[in-house]
Amino acid sequence: MNPTFAIEDRIRKTSLLVAAVVALMAGPASAANLVNNGSFETPDVTAGNNYVLYNTGSTGVTGWTVLGPTPIDAIHITPDTYQGLKGSDGHQWIDLTGIYGYDKGLLSDAIATAIGTKYHVSFDVGNYVPFGMATLGVAINGGAEQLFTNTSLAPTLTAPMNWASFGFDWVADSTSTRLSFVGRANGVLSNNGGIGLDNVSLTLLSSPAPEPSSWMLLLGGLGLVGALGRRRAQGGPDARDARGVAPSHGRLRRCA
Asked: Whole-angstrom Cα distance, residue 197 to residue 67?
């Protein structure tokens, strides 16, 4: 192989290796939702033109288990075909009050997560405007619950529903994660007749810190690319022309 071509091939391959390591450490280019059925589109109940109740312990809502203080009347899927009550994403949403009441909710199926990795949890809280504001509690793996309240009763494109988006970052401390969403009493900031939940997602924000070996591989690759480039620029042993002839650095002597 022509020595010049050999050097260029080594530089190209090393550059590709460095790029691969950088991409590996940077994480995925786009964030996919890790929550199964986060917009509650299955089962599809739109054809019935009515809400469908699911009792405590039910797994009838794909990807979720129903939570509640009593065995009956826990939550229901509401389709937009029922009195025009629109969700924030798709055609269905969850009313965490069931018929009426608080402390009812949903627990997600287990989601595989990586310890030390940062994720983003997001969801929408819906107010049925005639009933007032809504508050729900969010917890991860049974930990401390955070309350989120939609305080807006302004008319929107989804009226008589008003939806607000919420979210927070979280660093995983377990390889398996479950999210819970429960309708809560909160004085005038909540009501027991309509607490909406929709558009739930868990997305990857960043990968764990790279291992030392990955950094060494990256630095080694960068060093090799730099060294080869310098040798070529300085006309070293590998800097040959297309004929494979090394350049001369001495003065030309004129023959007598």
From this structure: 14
Residue 196 · residue 125 · CB < 8 Å: yes
CA 18 to chain centre: 26
Q: How far apart are CA 210 and CA 79, in angstroms?
A: 45
Q: Tell me if the pTM is above 0.85.
A: no
Class of 46-206 in CATH:
mainly beta
User: Would you put residue 101 in left (φ > 0), alpha (ψ -120 to 50) or beta?
Assistant: left
Note whether 100 and 184 are within 8 A (CB).
Answer: no
**What's at 74, amino acid-wise?**
A
- Phi and psi (nearest 5°) for 229? -65, -40
Nearest to 61 by CA among 33, 85, 96: 96
* In the chain, % of residues over pLDDT 90: 66
Domain segments of the chain: what residues?
3-27+218-233, 46-206
For residue 250, which amino acid is it?
Answer: G
Residues 6+ apart with CB under 8 A from 146: 137, 138, 139, 168
- Measured CA to CA in angstroms, residue 218 lies from 116, 211, 224, 248 at distances of 22, 11, 10, 35
